[in-house]
Design a protein that fits this description.
There is one protein chain. This protein is 42% helix and 21% strand. By secondary structure, it is an alpha+beta fold. It has two domains: 112 residues, Zona pellucida, ZP-C domain (Immunoglobulin-like, Sandwich); 131 residues, no CATH class. Strands 1, 3, 5, 6 and 7 form a five-stranded antiparallel beta sheet that branches. Helix 3 runs antiparallel to helix 7. The C terminus is likely disordered.
Length: 331
């Protein structure tokens, strides 16, 4: 009698515990993203568990193969997502499976172990099935490749080493021929280009004569007139004094002459300053000079060249006459 009462009490306790565990509303869902695949294709098996946050659950240890024909390729980590009521959560895990044999296959149910305090229980997922199809083969043609073989395109990264190698070889060959030619001529390997055969003042005076003949300022080509006069003087300074006047500003060129007074006297420097300063005003400030300024600029250019030219040691030739102001005005 006492033993019977003990069984009844244990049954009531276990029933209450089971009802308490079932009241936790645990749901297990298993699904696959496709039920029909080709041989070697992969499908995703997804487990979704919704449970109370305070309930412990253990996922099953899925083997590498479900059967001789279904293999597990990879498994994801278990992700946890809190649901809206904040007392429940959702656990998910993905498995990628495949099969290399055609046929119909089943995924067996998986059991998830639950623990609520000291009470243990389990809940199972549903059984799933999918179909694996083989590739259709045209027996009349015999076996063929799934895809035709094609060549991958050549990238710039692949051909760059070859291009650089060709350039390097060409440079070496060029240097060898240049070196042989240099040895035969017995001249310096690297030499500065020779200066013009004509003296600098001859070239400058000839260029000033050309500008005077063109009569640019009389044709209202003021900017071109002053640009050509200034460039002629700057070129003369480079060839005569080896001063980089074409790369310097007007102030820098004048400053160089004032630091080295042995290059020109004060009158010549003042003439140079008048030419370059007025040319800068015309070119950059859109200044319109008077006709007398145009004449004076060309006169100063002639005087500067003649006063600073390098005298030759050869027999004196007929000197270039300096045009007077009346002659320039008449033209």
């Amino acid at each position: 009698m006492n033993q019977r009462i003990l069984y009844i009490v244990l049954f009531v306790l276990l029933s209450g515990s089971m009802r308490s565990l079932q009241a936790q509303q645990v749901t297990v869902k298993a699904s696959i993203d496709s039920t029909h695949i080709l041989i070697g294709d992969q499908i995703k098996l997804l487990f979704e568990i919704e449970k109370p946050k305070d309930l412990d659950i253990r996922f099953p240890q899925v083997p590498d193969t479900f059967s001789a024909h279904v293999e597990v390729i990879s498994r994801s980590k278990i992700d946890t997502l809190q649901l809206d009521d904040k007392t429940r959560e959702k656990l998910t895990q993905s498995l990628f499976i495949t099969s290399f044999d055609s046929g119909a296959y089943q995924i067996p149910p998986f059991y998830f172990k639950l623990k609520d305090g000291k009470v243990l229980d389990s809940i199972a997922s549903r059984r799933l099935a999918f179909q694996v199809y083989g590739m259709k083969i045209d027996t009349a043609k015999g076996p063929v490749d799934i895809k035709t073989v094609y060549s991958a395109p050549v990238t710039l990264k692949e051909v760059t080493p070859y291009i650089l190698g060709i350039i390097l070889i060409a440079a070496i060959i060029f240097f060898i021929f240049y070196y042989i030619k240099w040895k035969r001529k017995n001249v310096p390997l690297f030499s500065k280009p020779e200066k013009p055969a004509e003296p600098a003042h001859i070239v400058a005076l000839r260029e000033l004569d050309r500008i005077k003949t063109q009569k640019l300022w009389q044709q209202e080509k003021i900017k071109q007139y002053y640009s050509e006069v200034a460039d002629t003087i700057r070129t003369y300074i480079e060839n005569r004094f080896d001063i980089q006047a074409m790369e310097q500003t007007s102030a820098e060129t004048i400053g160089t002459f004032r630091k080295k007074m042995e290059l020109a006297d004060e009158n010549s420097i003042n003439q140079l300053q008048h030419i370059l300063s007025l040319a800068d005003l015309v070119k950059f400030a859109k200044y319109t000079p008077l006709p007398d300024d145009n004449n004076l600029t060309l006169m100063n250019a002639y005087f500067f060249v003649n006063q600073t030219k390098k005298e030759e040691l050869k027999a004196p030739e007929k000197p270039t006459s300096e045009p007077d102001s009346e002659e320039i005005t008449a033209q």
